[in-house]
Amino acid sequence: MRLSRLRLHNHRNYAQLDLSPGPGVNVFIGPNGQGKTNLLEAVAMLALSSSPRARRDSELVGPVATGSRIAAEIETGGLRRELAITLAVEGERAKRTIEVDGARRRAFDLPGNFRVVLFWPDDLGLIKGGPELRRRFLNQMLVQVEPGYARAIAGLRRVLEQRNSLLKRIASGDGGEDTLEAWNQELVQVGTAIVRARSRAVSEMAPETARCHAQIGAGERLQIDYEGPPENLAEAVNNSLAEDLRRGSTSVGPHRDDIRVLLDGKDARAYASQGQQRTAVVSLKLAEAALIQRRAGERPVLLLDDGLSELDGERRAALLGEVAGGGQVIVTSVEAGPFPPELIAGALVWTVSEGRIEPCG
């Protein structure tokens, strides 16, 4: 898997960019606020179909026009493909158009054409943060390797929106009881597909996560478990109806699940030190890369956004060991200091300044 060319038009602070990354390690160096994260965001969007950090698409459109475009040429499985995402601002919203080899596609058809593993500074909250961060971690991984998963996630959002609206209507006496069962059945159908995919993925990642954690040198035993809804989801949805009507929202389903992370049998969220949390996060991301490679048959592109500065030497070495394992890597940093000289010597190094990128040296 390789990104061979990236072109940006009016994406964030990039008025125009035409970049051809190398097949190995690419290091982008520059002060904060110059566009390093914006660059990785654009690459990630080609894999996920949406931004991993923006709440609204309109935030992605720069100041020089009323629209933006991300276009790329990728190489995968011996084939060359062209991917593009175009945004056109209409009022306060932006209309998104997705193309694969020049043909329009829906948002849930894009993931799987290009695969990446993201390592953002925000990922360091995967242990201490709320369950929504761990669900997002699973979603960003599975849309790239699990057929039908992106469609299922889109379906779950639609079901929850419609069912929650209906619950509020019923609770206020406006009727709607006759259509509730249909939404219950759809929730069970789409929810079961998501739960099964997540459960399989966590089980598949667990041995690799433990191995990576041990390899980093931590003395603890790391364990991850999937915490999903009850096994009989249909029964659980039916039993929760009274509570759902009282709350006006759906209380049972994959939108409530989590990954439990244990260190030596104790909840890492409550007991892990900051260093232990970071070790666990690095282990989770390395296991994610291994799962994607195993399922897709080729190594994903690794995107590392200034995460090295948050890690101590031992954890940094473990992550860079994965980076040095071959394949394409795009990594950003404020300075070259965190990188071993031998890695820099074999990398393409670029400078980033005010939305402009130039090769270094």
What does this structure look like?
The chain has helices at 36-48, 131-142, 149-171, 177-216, 233-239, 241-247, 268-271, 274-296, 313-323, 341-345; strands at residues 2-11, 14-19, 25-29, 67-76, 79-90, 93-100, 103-105, 116-119, 222-227, 258-263, 266-267, 301-305, 329-333, 348-353, 356-359. It is globular. The chain has a six-stranded antiparallel beta sheet with strand order 2-1-4-5-6-7, with helices on one face. The model has no long low-confidence stretch (mean pLDDT 92). The protein has 361 residues and is an alpha/beta fold. The relative contact order is 0.17. It contains ten helices and 15 strands.
Topology of this protein?
Layout: E1 2-11, E2 14-19, E3 25-29, H1 36-48, E4 67-76, E5 79-90, E6 93-100, E7 103-105, E8 116-119, H2 131-142, H3 149-171, H4 177-216, E9 222-227, H5 233-239, H6 241-247, E10 258-263, E11 266-267, H7 268-271, H8 274-296, E12 301-305, H9 313-323, E13 329-333, H10 341-345, E14 348-353, E15 356-359
Parallel strand pairs: 3-13, 3-14, 8-12, 12-13
Antiparallel strand pairs: 1-2, 1-4, 4-5, 5-6, 6-7, 9-10, 10-11, 14-15
